[in-house]
Specification:
32% helix, Protein-Tyrosine Phosphatase, Chain A, 3 domains, UDP-N-acetylmuramoyl-L-alanine:D-glutamate ligase
Length: 440
């Protein structure tokens, strides 16, 4: 573990609270380490009231809200950037910190440097990374191994360092932005790579953050290291180094509780990651544990049923490819012409033509958010310009029949109308129950 960075008596500026607790976690951690922290966010105190209430009044903490003024950088030793900040290499505030010689980092780098990389299985991918991480964690725990799940999947590992021992396996989900901050920059002493790395898939995504496909591609590949072990699907065999295990269709694990051939491949990738780090475990025990995994909230989760209509919350689907996989997976339950699909949201710059083309095969394609008009304009028929989730659900409620499936799998991020995908998914479930007259 890297103990070269100390924070006692340092003046830190945390840039952004973040949607999933990273800003809160790193703020709490720095205060515990004896740092003085300025919490800086462009949102107002009222908008951040819930998150700020979690922090409470702490000695050494001050707020600077509503702006990112360069004046805040005076006497600052450390700038902690929220990974959601797009194209940080051209952000004027961050560049001003670099010019002043201020150390610039992120919550994930601070957390990662407290961990033993030999205990880490790190997983990324354009689609499937959360499910593969959760399957891996579930199977390890089911086989009696102590495991911690963290990273991009939510929350901050900095709040859980006390739970980690020499016998703990850390399953770490890493986004492309996190990978850039860990290994994409020129650092004097970059952190060591994890014992096992896995890339579940690669398709165009987050082009708004990266500024183009080439940078996104390079960032994903930063997870791989020639000296460490890796697990890749056969679709990414060209990325392989000598210590890489390639998972093919012959290895997929059938009989999983969560549907879809893509989840059968996710299961195989999870199985391979575990075998790479823990070869002593019985293969059958790993496979049985993975099969028993019932799925994550907001990831093709069967969340409600009423009058023979079944609702699936796949709000975590933020790429067109993830939506296509969800639709394919549900074909074992109903033909496509019985599926009411809600798509659209924040525009990340991805090509959404494939979503529009689904319309003619479905019971209906209901388009919401910033990308709604674009998707509808590329659909030949059967697409509805719903604009928002409430309207989409009302339209579906008036049309859905017994045996139909209602699926929220947007293929886009949520940030135009919701704080995050979790809020979007929770609202979908709430609307389904409200329209069905269910109050509990």
């Amino acid at each position: 573990m890297d103990q070269s960075y100390t924070f006692n008596n340092k003046q830190a500026l945390v840039m952004g609270l973040g949607r999933f607790g990273g800003g809160l976690g790193v703020t709490r951690y720095l205060l515990r380490q004896g740092a003085r922290v300025v919490l800086n966010d462009q949102a107002s105190e009222e908008e951040l009231s819930t998150s700020l209430a979690d922090l409470g009044n702490q000695t050494g903490l001050s707020l600077a809200l509503g702006h990112h003024s360069p004046r805040l950088l005076e006497d600052i030793d450390l700038l902690v950037v929220n990974p959601a900040v797009p194209r940080p290499w051209e952000n004027a505030f961050i560049e001003a910190a670099v010019d002043k010689g201020i150390r610039v980092t992120t919550e994930i780098e601070i957390a990662y440097r407290q961990l033993n990389p030999d205990q880490i299985i790190a997983i990324t991918g354009s689609a499937g990374k959360s499910t593969t991480c959760a399957m891996t964690h579930h199977a390890l725990a089911s086989n009696g191994l102590h495991s911690i799940l963290g990273g991009n999947i939510g929350g901050s590992l900095l709040d859980r360092l006390g739970e980690i021992s020499n016998d703990t396996t850390i399953v770490l989900e890493l986004s492309s932005a996190m990978l850039y901050w860990l290994w994409g920059r020129e650092l004097e002493s970059p952190p060591s790579h994890p014992a096992v790395s896995c890339v579940t898939s690669f398709n165009a995504n987050h082009l708004d953050w990266h500024g183009g496909l080439e940078h996104y591609h390079a960032s994903k590949k930063h997870i791989l290291c020639k000296k460490k072990r890796a697990v890749l699907p056969e679709s990414l065999a060209s990325w392989a180094y000598p210590n890489t295990r390639i998972v093919t269709k012959d290895h997929i694990i059938h009989g999983c509780e969560i549907p879809g051939s893509h989840n059968a491949m996710n299961a195989a990738l999870a199985h391979a990651c575990i075998q790479e780090l823990h070869p002593q475990l019985e293969e059958s025990e790993i496979v049985n544990a993975i099969r028993s995994f019932s799925g994550l909230p907001h990831r093709l989760n069967r969340c409600f049923e009423h009058n023979g209509v079944v609702y699936f919350d796949d709000s975590k689907s933020t790429t067109p490819q993830a939506t296509l996989l969800a639709v394919d997976a549900l074909q074992t339950l109903a033909p496509r012409n019985r599926v009411h699909l809600i798509v659209g949201g924040y525009d990340k710059g991805a090509d959404l033509t494939s979503l529009a083309k689904l319309a003619t095969e479905l019971a209906g394609l209901y388009c919401i958010g910033t990308t709604a008009e674009s998707i509808v304009s590329n659909a030949h028929r059967n697409a509805y310009l719903s604009q928002n989730l409430e309207t989409a659900m009302q339209q579906i409620h008036s049309r859905a029949e017994r045996g139909d499936l209602v699926v929220l799998s947007p293929g886009c991020a949520s940030w135009d109308q919701f704080d995050n995908y979790e809020v979007r998914g929770t609202r979908f479930i709430q609307l389904a129950k409200n329209l069905a007259g269910v109050t509990a």
